[in-house]
Amino acid sequence: MGMSSDPAGAARPRVLVQGLTPSEIETVKDLAGSVRVTSDFTDVHPEEHDVLIHTDADFSDLSGSYPRRLVFAPKPDLDLRGISRSSSSIGYSESRTFTRAQTRQTPARDFDVPDSVKGMGLESLVRASCQPAPEQMYVGVSVPVYPERETLILLQERLKYGLTLAAIFRSQESFYSTDFVVWLPDQARSHLKDWFKHSLSLWREEEPDRFPTAADWHEHDSWASPPELSSRRALAEFEAEEARRVELSAMQRQVLTDQLAADQIEGAAWRSLLTSNGNDLVDQVRSALASFGFGVVDSDALPENKGKKREDLRVVDGDWTALVEVKGYAGSARSNDLLQVTSTVAAYAVATGRLPDALWYIPNVERGLPPSQRSSPLAGREDDLHEFSESHHGCLIDTRELFALRQSVATGAVTQETARELLKQATGRFKAEGPLKTH
Fold first, then answer.
1. Domains identified in the chain, total number
2. How far apart are the first and last CA of the chain?
3. d(CA 398, CA 405)
4. Computed from CA positions of residues 237, 240, 243, 244, in that sequence, does the dihedral angle turn out positive or negative?
5. Tens-place pLDDT, residues 65-124
6. CA-to-CA separations, 245 to 109, 124, 138, 231, in angstroms, rounded
7. Any domain includes 206
8. Last residue of a domain, which of 193, 219, 245?
9. I want to staple 191 with a disulfide (CB 3.0 to 4.6 A). Which of 108, 129, 296, 387 is the partner?
10. What does the alpha-carbon distance between residue 276 and residue 284 come to, in Å, rounded to a whole number?
11. Long-range contacts (CB closer than 8 Å, 24 or more residues apart) made by 419-427
12. H-helix or E-strand containing 362?
């Protein structure tokens, strides 16, 4: 079958192009019935062309004149603010404002290709030609758009109100035919032939006479040379393998994402040592100290302490014992809490016939702030802390330091035995990376 032609003799599809390079125009000629190049739309008659390929344009530009368009968006430009402005499209009121492209100055990290597009076999093409490089600025539009369009999103930011970087827009608003446009980022021109072929196949479904298959007969396997057939098979195999790889990668990423979500729940409990208060904080401190191999006893559970306020915890390592007071604060620590710790010594001595080997004061201060922004507990009360240290082998253990030591033990950087010795030897302010004394 020969190419269908209009009365003037131009073979269909009759393609008008604007803004393409000479090599890109040659690419279009391989698939078009006829091609005309213009830089001024006032010099051509729209009805003499079946499709317009143009650059540096919004999805609605010239929609009233050329209902079938392959459009490449403007390049990223900080002057593209996404502000609506009057459209110059023929067929629409000049007073109406249309959705315009805008430059994303703070690029997103992730982009989504909808499942419907994957089902069309377009994911590899979309990813290869439309997805911007990491941290590279790009152009997009906010959907839904105005004038209203039925929108098939091809690529979109993975954000709550993400911009659409590539899409197919359709409507019935054009004055003589359905508007049907494929809108892509400028960088997609690197795959111009693939996108033009796909656009032709979409338009052909609705208007087979205007977009006959004869225009691209040389693309059919029936008329291909053996090397072409071999290359086509290799490309098809590559694209199929790439699609499988992308699907597998997405599945693996989902597994990792799900695992991270589960681990974040456990992580919140792990960080409770830095955020909790009251009995919850006592439980977290008990758990941390037990992870070092200490024996840890809830003092309130001891028969001799029933109904009495004593220390929160007793920590034992063989015949060594420390009495522990745990406090959580929204603000700063209080030095009179040191007296509360030391007041437990007499009762312990009466009950056991011996003095404790150490007293530990474990405060969680300013727990509403990020740990790195918190002040040091009892800063400026060094005399009180010195007296506590000298008289009772006392030690202030900031929960941040306890967290750091637990982290080192959990990751294998420090052994349980070393952690116990660091704590048993410490007086004054405990530092998780303090040196061990040698004997």
1. 3
2. 100
3. 11
4. negative
5. 999 999 999 999 877 654 433 344 444 444 558 899 999 989 999 999 999 998 888 999
6. 20, 10, 26, 21
7. yes
8. 219
9. 129
10. 8
11. 419/292, 419/293, 420/292, 420/293, 420/294, 420/317, 423/289, 423/292, 423/322, 423/360, 423/395, 423/397, 424/317, 424/320, 424/322, 424/357, 424/358, 426/395, 426/397, 427/389, 427/390, 427/393, 427/394, 427/395
12. strand 358-364
Crossing angle of helices 192-206 and 123-130, rounded to 10°: 130
How confident is residue 338, by pLDDT bands cut at 50, 70 and 90? confident
| Residue 89 resides in a domain | yes
SS3 312: coil
Q: Are strands 14-18 and 428-429 parallel, antiparallel or unpaired?
A: unpaired
Tokens for 418? Answer: 């070393």
Q: Same domain for 245 and 293? A: no
Listed in sequence order, the residues at least 6 apart from 423 whose beta carbon sits closer than 8 Å to its beta carbon are 289, 292, 322, 360, 395, 397, 405, 430
Task: Give pLDDT tens digits for 359-414.
Answer: 999 999 998 899 999 999 888 788 888 889 888 889 999 999 999 999 999 999 99
**345, 366: one domain:** yes
Residue 280 shares a structural domain with residue 203: no
Query: Of 154, 185, 219, which residue constitutes the final position of a domain?
Result: 219
Sign of the CA dihedral with 238 first, then 241, 247, and 253 last: negative
In this structure, the answer to whether residues 124 and 226 fall within a common structural domain is: no
CB 405 within 8 Å of CB 422: yes
Residue 81 half-sphere exposure toward CB, CA atoms < 13 A: 4
- Strand order of the sheet with strand 51-54? 34-37, 14-18, 51-54, 68-72, 179-184, 164-171, 150-157, 111-112
What backbone torsions phi and psi does residue 362 show, to the nearest 5 degrees?
-115, 100
pLDDT confidence of 351, banded at 50, 70, 90? confident
- Count the helices and strands in the chain (H runs, E runs): 12, 18
Same domain, 102 and 73: yes
Q: How many CA atoms lie within 13 A of 422 on its CB side?
A: 24
The reported pTM is 0.53
Beta bridge partners of 102: 81, 140
8 A C-beta contact, residue 193 and residue 201: no
The reply to whether 227 and 339 lie within a common domain is no
Q: Which domain holds residue 327?
A: 273-429
What is the helix (H) or strand (E) element at residue 287, kind and residue range? helix 278-290
Does some domain include residue 416? yes
The reply to whether 183 and 252 lie within a common domain is: no
- Mark whether 167 and 310 lie in a shared domain: no
